Fold this sequence. Notes:
Blueprint: H1 9-15, H2 30-33, H3 37-50, E1 58-64, E2 70-75, H4 78-95, H5 112-125, E3 130-135, H6 139-142, H7 145-155, H8 159-170, E4 173-175, E5 178-180, H9 193-215, E6 221-226, E7 229-234, H10 237-252, E8 264-267, H11 270-278, E9 287-289, E10 292-298, E11 304-310, H12 312-328, H13 334-352, H14 358-379, H15 387-397, H16 452-461
Parallel strand pairs: 1-4
Antiparallel strand pairs: 1-2, 3-7, 3-8, 4-5, 6-7, 9-10, 10-11
Helix pairs in contact: 1-4, 7-8, 7-9, 12-14, 13-14
Amino acid sequence: xxxxxxxxxxxxxYQALKREAAPGVDGVRWADYGDxxxxxxxDLHERVHRGSYRAQPSRRIYLPKPDGRQRPIGIAAxxxxxxxxxxxxxxxxxxxxxxxxxxxxxxxxxxxHNALDALSVGIVRKGVNWIVDADIRGFFDNMxxxxxxxxxxxxxxxxxxxxxxxxxxxxxxxxDGEWSETKVGTPQGAVISPLxxxxxxxxxxxxxxxxxxxxVAKGAVMAIRYADDLVVGFEHRDEAERFLKEFGERLAxxxxxxxxxxxxxxxxxxxAARERWARGEGEPESFTFxxxxxxxxxxRQGHFxxxxxxxxxxxxxxxxxxxxxLRRRMHEPVPKVGEWLKRVLDGHYQYFGVxxxxxxxxxxxxxxxxxxxxxxxxxxxxxxxxxxxxxxxxTRWLPRPRVVHPYRSSVLPLFIQGKSRMRQSRLYxxxxxxxxxxxxxxxxxxxxxxxxxHAAGHKRRWSSLPLA
Length: 468
């Protein structure tokens, strides 16, 4: 399989890297490596195939999390990133045939909003009454090297690929110039890590829940996974409780555990909302997934719907970053700061611009405008800027909230008679013959087993791995 890692693949792998990323222990940035790129990549290709390529330790840094804690990030050396990207390209061609439709994280052609849409559709249409909001404690830091290699070896026979992956996992980390060994885990931030995480949880969760559902569940079951973020929906409470217990036992076999404080079983859904109101308990609890707080709501016609709003911690963390950056840019020209703020707001709307989130989007813009106004007043010699001038600046540079990701049903015409020459907007899954456009919901959220022959084939294929 390593023969697919050609000298022609490496330039594409180099171009796929983030150009502004921080350097690793080698101190080499993306642009610096581009000088004399062709001979560099040719030499790298030869070292990989001769077996003389050596992985360097990751440079460890810490990034603040929304809850105030620090997230360790491993930054690989640039050549390691290039080779990892090439291996990811090769392995994706294999694993995309096996990964399940309800797995979304870091996969080609899939996005967080695909997972969010699948979650909403699944809860509304599949009779979900109970939600398991599962949080795997320190997943990337606790992935077993032994199990990772067993999972890789089950599908990939080339031992040279095995050795490359082992080199990256065992290269260690460098923190403040001191090297330390890594016996478990994979650096969160390495190019190869998302694929390894998906392979790991494909075996630990995806294949197992299919067997579990067939053997145990009597009611509807829905699962959505984005990397190590899991949401599982159930029709019946007893099945949800049993799943939560047995899933914890399942994780323990592979060196993982559920976070006891962040993993919750909550009553959620159309029936749940009605029953809680009838019992005088008010609205069901909310849960957070992929940066959005999900809560139960209703349309003007009284039908159940899911409200999605920007998670409060995520919103506050982003606003604090903007506030600090504005102070740093205090003496820069106003148009330059305005251009930067426009990009910040556009990026925020690009992710959080969903129906029903107007209040959070408006709050974000309002707070950004307030912080900018304070900075402008501080830099003014008179200590004040007229409201008229501020209003003009805000109108010019701070775009107003907008919906970027409409409801799926709202992007299709409701009814068309005959054939129209006008080009129609189509849903994901509605274009015949286009790769990745098969059955938008069936492939998006797991709520039933595949056909019997297909399921039986997978049982035979994965029989050597522990599924129960």
